[in-house]
Specification:
This protein is α+β, with helices and mostly antiparallel strands. Helix content is about 30%, strand content about 25%. It is built from 16 helices and 24 strands. It has helices at about 5-10, 15-40, 70-80, 130-140, 150, 175-180, 185-190, 255-265, 315-320, 325-335, 360-370, 400-415, 425-435, 455-460, 475-485, 490-510, and strands at about 40-45, 50-55, 85-90, 95, 100-105, 110-115, 155-160, 165-170, 215-220, 225-235, 245-250, 270, 285-290, 295-300, 335-340, 375, 380-385, 385-390, 390-395, 420-425, 440-445, 510-515, 520-525, 550-555.
Length: about 550
């Protein structure tokens, strides 16, 4: 008879339960100890595998880097399929991609790029300098109608051999490497396609690139809308091979339907979610909300040529003093943004706090208008020499901007300014107001770069369409500073120029600067390795996509 059988005869029922419990505790302790030792002496590492799916609002049309500008869906896919000579890292800094090395001459006019060797296109053909030459010449040729043509005008490009490309500028341009982040097209595929047929080519939806992922398949509905788009890992990628095997995109007509798909676990991530959408995000515990710094700001651009009222600097100053930016950020953005008072938002190269700020001070705003002769009438609104203090504010009907416009109306009317808000369709605003500059005050956003070139937004030469000087700002001393910024390669000297520029603009008050919103994108917590701090544009959230992973194994430390 075994010892366990003898104990069974001797022990009472309660004692048997006690012994069994103790045995279970002992076994559990041993297991916990073994598991603890295992986890203590091992560490997880990413391994290949896993499928990631993401929702995007919009439709892909041109997965072609020289045509994709203006469409987030196109640019997102281009970022994964194509490579440029340079690219942005997780902090928004420029690093080599297809380029192995580069040098500039003393004049700052010639950039010589040495290309990586043994790079293959997705179809197995070799990548060479001729591909770079073809891509840039196609951008420069007006027949191809590339939206990038303007930034490449006047740049010469030539090749020495299969791995050397030379760019010749007409004037020094400190931001030129930014131009070289454009994805490169395969010459052997596109050179036989006539410019008129370029937008119609099947390769716009079945692209061939050199990027970390390559085209696999897509699905359309009966109306021709693309429902989903699949990419698979490029096994021959010249850089670090991605861990995630497949990335799929699903496309939606609006944020609500995209968010519903995420909540129903039809996709694993969202390319973007507005701050107001966060409250409707279910299963927050399983979601990572990535709040990323992006060089974008929103402001009210004041057209002094269309409004005598806004031509008065005291009025513009009072509007800035009456603007409670913190309240707007908290109410509209859920706190996901930063107050701004200058044309270079915090977090960008050249940003400074050492400028004149007309921060929220309603008493000072009222005093400024009183001293300028704008007196309140019985109805609470101000007049000066029978001229009513009235402003027409045009905004797009995007939820965030429409709400911002409503808040501004209340804040400005609190100091006696009559505000008439028009929230219109974005296409209507662009075509009928922005292009002809037919607005008094425009609530709109502008996107710079991590290393910003403010010339197009503030030079007096850019006041007419297609220029981006929406305040029609004209200041000869600022024009000269902007030219120097573009040509100054020394970062310390350029910092000083940025400060001068911001000081002048802040003093002139051509704009009521509001906020710089953070960019919010969502991923399931099963997706690891995402570390993006700053990005120039939304597609740059894939800057470190080769380090994303969904599967792991443990190895000895």
């Amino acid at each position: 008879m075994s010892i366990w059988q003898r104990l069974s005869q001797v022990l009472s029922h309660k004692e048997k339960i006690t012994v069994n419990v103790l045995i279970l505790v002992l076994v559990a302790s041993l297991i916990a100890t073994v598991v603890g030792f295992y986890y203590h002496f091992t560490k997880p590492i990413p391994v290949p595998g896993g499928d990631y799916s993401e929702g995007i609002v919009g439709q892909p049309m041109y997965i072609n880097p020289i045509l994709a500008r203006g469409s987030d869906a196109d640019q997102d896919l281009c970022a994964l399929v194509f490579s440029g000579l340079f690219k942005y890292d997780a902090d928004g800094k420029i690093i080599p991609d297809l380029a192995e090395d580069y040098e500039t001459d003393k004049s700052g006019l010639t950039y010589t790029i040495k290309l990586k060797k043994d790079v293959k296109w997705h179809d197995g053909e070799p990548f060479t300098a001729d591909d770079v030459l073809f891509t840039i010449q196609a951008i420069q040729d007006p027949a191809f109608k590339s939206p990038l043509r303007q930034i490449w005008q006047g740049v010469g490009v030539e090749t020495d051999d299969e791995s050397t490309v030379r760019f010749i500028l007409q004037a020094p341009y400190a931001f030129f490497l930014n131009n070289l982040t454009i994805g490169i097209l395969p010459r052997h595929i596109w050179e036989t396609i006539a410019p008129a047929n370029f937008p119609l080519a099947e390769y716009n939806l079945r692209p061939v690139g050199t990027g970390p992922y390559k085209f696999s398949d897509f699905e359309k509905d009966p109306d021709g809308n693309i429902l989903s788009y699949d990419l698979e890992v490029n096994e021959n990628y010249f850089g670090q091979k991605p861990f995630i095997s497949r990335i799929s995109f699903s496309f939606y007509f609006d944020e609500d339907s995209m968010l519903e798909a995420y909540n129903n676990k039809q996709v694993f991530g969202l390319s973007y979610l507005s701050p107001s959408g966060l409250k409707d995000l279910k299963s927050r515990r399983s979601a990572d909300v990535h709040s990323i710094n992006i060089p974008r700001y929103f402001a009210v651009f004041l057209n002094q040529q269309k409004s005598k009222v806004l031509a008065d600097r005291d009025v513009r100053k009072a509007l800035s003093l009456a603007t409670d930016r913190k309240a707007i950020i908290n109410e509209v953005l859920g706190g996901e943004g930063k107050e701004i008072y200058s044309p270079i938002p915090p977090g960008l190269f050249g940003a400074t706090d050492d400028i004149k700020k007309f921060e929220y001070n309603i008493d000072e705003a009222n005093k400024t208008l009183d001293n300028a002769g704008w007196k309140k009438s019985e109805d609470g609104f101000r007049k000066k020499d029978s001229q009513p203090l009235e402003v027409k504010l045009v905004a797009t009907d995007w939820p965030d901007l429409a709400q911002t416009a409503e808040i501004l109306e209340k804040q400005w009317e609190a100091i006696g300014v009559k505000v008439n808000v028009e929230s219109l369709d974005a296409a209507d605003v662009q075509q009928n107001y922005i292009r002809p500059r037919e607005y008094e005050a425009l609530l709109f956003g502008q996107t710079l770069g991590i290393d910003p070139d403010p010339y197009a937004f503030w030079s007096s030469s850019q006041t007419r369409d297609p220029g981006l000087n929406l305040a029609l700002y004209s200041n000869q001393s600022v024009d000269k500073i902007l030219e120097k910024i573009r040509q100054e390669a020394d970062n310390e000297k350029r910092m000083g120029l940025y400060k001068e520029f911001q000081q002048s603009v802040s003093e002139d008050v051509p704009v009521v600067f509001l906020y710089s919103p953070n960019y919010l994108c969502i991923t399931n917590k099963k997706v690891q390795g995402i570390e993006i701090n700053s990005m120039n544009t939304p597609d740059k959230r894939f800057a470190n996509v080769t380090e994303w992973y969904m599967k792991t194994k443990r190895i000895r430390k």
